[in-house]
Structure of NAD(P)-dependent dehydrogenase, short-chain alcohol dehydrogenase family:
Amino acid sequence: MTAQFHDLENAHVFITGGGGGIGAALTESFLTQKAKVSFVGRSDYSDFADDMAEKTGTKPFFQQCDVTDTKALHAAMDEAVAKQGALKVQINNAAADTRMDPADITVEDWDNQIAVNLRHYFFACQKAGALMTDGGSIINFSSASYQIAGEQLAPYVSSNAGILGLTRSLARDWGPRAIRVNAISPGLVLTKKQIEEVHTDEDLAEFRKKQCIPENLYPEDVPGTALFLASDLSRMMTGQCLFIDGGLAFTG
């Protein structure tokens, strides 16, 4: 981290899925900017919160929460505002890229995937819009998978295409209130799960050939763009989607 976004100091940032993968990198980066970070996660990330306190000098406010439980998510956001102050930045990041053969997907599978990958985004945005009394920035994490036809990911890809429509619609609705709504679409980011459970060295080598920049992406490659979109440096940017994918979506 070399850039300092001074207007993010003491700004309250709420992150869904902020304890692992890209979300963990986001949490650490905003703490490094001296922001007040609140985050939720389905698993217990108390140890991660303690680690962040030791590493950055500030402990994020963690609440264990299933983002598909809208009442619990809204209650967690209310609690975060009560503890950390007015909401300035909302980052919707929690997702599940579960691979499924389309022939085997049930209605329950579909509904469960849409609930975590799209529905929670809308209701988190809805609550953030109500809590942002003096403008703010909402950042929705999509995925380049919807542009490159990700294999066996029909609900996930559909959700991420929907996130772009949601982002643009809310940008129009909330622009008059100085609430900006943008999206970030990462490519293949090598989180621990991707390395250990999904990809081999051979298929990663093939994937890199599709990118303009033939290098692996890691969680640390993502937060800089989120910091920019959260900062007032991007105050006239809304309804946009920025890709962090080494040029993957550009090349197809």
Summary: The chain has a mean pLDDT of 94. The chain has one domain: 8-244.
